[in-house]
Amino acid sequence: MKRGSAFNVRIFQRTNGWIGSRWRIGRKFLRGIPVCLLTTTGRRSGQARISPLLFLQRGPDTVVVASQGGMPRHPDWYHNLVADPAVRLHLPHQAEFAATAHVVDDDERAALWPELVELYPSFAVYQARAERVIPVIVCSPVS
Questions:
Q1: Residue range 3-12, pLDDT digits in tens
Q2: Which of 13, 114, 18 minimizes the C-alpha distance to 65?
């Protein structure tokens, strides 16, 4: 998984998202699901950590999900952005930009969740098997 993610990051960066910006799986194979790169600062190392993530665009904001496939723990990138919400985003065919991340509250999550499940139906499967509430994060561009 780590090797595949690292390869995806490199190819995405080298092609500005022309390659590596769509995850093709299941019924979404033909159209693909959009992928962005989220850069957080390691909470212990202080080093930049880049994660390829599925995303939903809502106006200027980018919505990502800390699902980690429904695993029992939140992904490391989630803990990093909670510790330091200053992140960088690289969306397909765009220049990387600075953003501020925040974990949405229960009401906003309830409003976003159906759209996220429509984007990627496995999010519902992950939530059903997870023994945690899967966080939804909104990243807003820094003006």
A1: 667 767 878 7
A2: 114
- Token pair of 43 as six digits: 């909470």
pTM: 0.86
Q: Which residue has the tokens 């690292």?
A: 6
Looking at CATH, the fold of the domain delimited by 2-141 is given as Pnp Oxidase; Chain A (2.30.110)
pLDDT of residue 9: 80
Beta bridge partners of 99: 87, 141
For residues 100 and 87, the answer to whether their CB atoms sit within 8 Å is yes
Domain ranges of the chain: 2-141
All residues at 6 or more sequence positions from 8 whose CB lies less than 8 Å from its CB, including other chains: 20, 35, 52
Within 10 angstroms of residue 43's Cβ, the number of other Cβ atoms is: 14
Which residue is it, tokens 């939804």?
136
